[in-house]
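Hi W., the adenosine-5'-diphosphate complex you wanted:
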Amino acid sequence: MPSLPVLVLNSGSSSIKFSVYEAGDGERRKLHEGAVDGIGTDQGSFWIKDADGNKLVDQNPALPTRAVAFKLVADALHSGDFPAPVAIGHRMVCGGPTVQENQLITPALIDEMERYTAFAPLHTPIAVYIMRESLRLFPGVPNFVCLDSYFHRTMPEVVTHMPIPEEYSAMGVRRYGAHGISYESIVYQLQPNVPEKLIVAHLGNGASISAIKNGKCLDTSMGLTPTGGIISGTRTGDIDPGVLLFILRKIAETAKSASEAADQLETVASKKAGLLGVSDLSNDMRDLRDAIKEGNAKARLAVDKFTWTIARWIGSYVAELNGLDMMVFTGGIGENDIVSRAEICAGLGALGIALDPVRNNVRGEAVISAENSRVTVRVIPPAEDLIIVNHVVRLLAE
Ligand code: ADP
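Structure:
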């Protein structure tokens, strides 16, 4: 196969991130990356860098809508200043029960995935919007969907099935997991020496943790939606369902309709809870660490809840994997927050996990376990775009 420019699109609530790779047989080279940020504001940012980090585009346009933002990207890639993509890969959290494989995007496929918006309500509407726009603005270019849930499709039914009445299970309510492309990229980077029993903690603004056996997902902390699992920046994580019912009843006292009450509950559980909710200060670990230094007790509690939950989850995964060979930290907190890694691992000596404080004093890729640690502990940044390119190249060749 000749080298082809492949565009990778990753859309968030206020930004569209993208990268362009040159991809051929076994060859992957990042040519450009860029972002449009500040959607919904008068002065956003639009930049494109080359592989050496030189800014080739650096603008502050008004970005009243997502449509305006995406058109900037499409216009730039059609301008002749950059290689026009011959294939496009879209990141998508969850395609629902009927779309579990990465595949060519058609209008019918988008409609099908949109039926399950409730399973990733903060992500799916944005992703399907960009997919429709991409089919329109890049006519004739094949677009492929790459699902986070794809990596988790190997979880056994005992893990995915929810303890709820059958009628809801039949609607597709089950555990799908998230961050799958990040996990896939860690396994990819460990090849050819993927350990048999592996735990990966993806600790970013959204946080999750997975048990991986022989390179395949055995269990992951997020559930039907990315709100479940471990506590993260603004999300509750797993919680007694009675708490949600209590909050819902409180909200219902003043809400105008049932759907307004449900939306408000979603905002509480997904945008106002987690580290932000407990600290009453910030969802960003950097702010919380600064506040702890100044003696802020709520910030201390929020971070302690975070590290305690993760340590408990690691313990249960060691039982599930029946041992552990390697533990990997990734994501913004996993890569950068030296203290969180130390605090999570501090009580895990009995599981064979021992950090070396000097080795742990790093940001970015490293082995951080002590020489005598039975379990190897590593920090590995994710390479999600590369995984999407790999899927696009594979699907193009089919
Ligand atoms: P997302 O989940 O949005 O992809 P990232 O994986 O980039 O996010 O993680 C972002 C989070 O990482 C921030 O909210 C912050 O909590 C944390 N973080 C980033 N840099 C640092 C740092 N230097 N020290 C501690 N935490 C950091």
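The pocket of adenosine-5'-diphosphate is lined by residues 204-206, 233, 284-286, 331-333, 336-337 (CB under 6 Å).

W.
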